[in-house]
Amino acid sequence: MLTLHELKKTANQKSKMKRVGRGVGSGKGKTCGRGTKGAKARSGYKRRHGQEGGQRPVFKKVPIRGFTRGAFKVETFSINLGMISEKFKDGEIVCKESLIQKSLISKKSSAKIRILGHGELTVKVNFSAHHFSKTAEEKILKAECKVERLL
């Protein structure tokens, strides 16, 4: 019969940690596997990139050129068809103004609207948005709703 002291942990078994600096017989005594002297042997050592022994690092010498990533980034707001079915009634127009009124978008948002196809479209509404996913477009056409693409 199996007893408690015979149980072994089989999931996520890790190798035993090597105890360094515990005498010459341990195999990692004296210098603890760090070699002798130098910055790497000292406590608190961190390898810092860009240090070039007293001279100015190359990345600080080179001028900054080009654009930052956020310069041409276009913000988009995505809304699923399931959410539209919940919030809108038959005959309403799904546009930026109506989404703000239903508090789905903040007033300050200058984002473009993207309609995604997750969920079912149970109401007959008209759409005025910048982008439609393929599945959303198929479901909208199946529900016989009008679509207006904005630039």
Describe this structure in words.
This protein has 151 residues and is of the alpha/beta class. It has a domain at 77-149: Ribosomal Protein L15, Chain: K, domain 2, CATH 3.100.10. It contains 4 helices and 6 strands, in the order αβαβαβββαβ. It has helices at 58-61, 81-87, 96-101, 134-142, and strands at residues 76-80, 93-94, 112-116, 126-129, 131-132, 147-149. The strands form 2 sheets. It has a 3-stranded parallel β-sheet with strand order 1-3-5. A 3-stranded parallel β-sheet has the order 2-4-6. The chain is elongated.
In short:
The chain has 151 residues and is an alpha/beta fold.
CATH top level of the domain at 77-149 is Alpha Beta
Q: Determine the strand fraction and express it as a percent band.
A: 5-15%
CATH topology-level fold name of the domain at 77-149: Ribosomal Protein L15, Chain: K, domain 2
Q: What is the share of helical residues?
A: 10-25%
* Largest sheet geometry: 3 strands, parallel
Nearest-angstrom radius of gyration? 31 Å
What's the total count of β strands?
A: 6
Please state the second-level CATH architecture of the domain at 77-149. Ribosomal Protein L15, Chain: K, domain 2
Number of helices: 4
Shape: elongated
Average of pLDDT:
86
Going by helix content, strand content and strand pairing, the class is alpha/beta
Alpha-carbon distance between the termini? 75 Å
The residue ranges in which pLDDT falls below 50 over 5 or more consecutive positions are none
Order of helices and strands: HEHEHEEEHE
* Strand order, largest beta sheet: 1-3-5
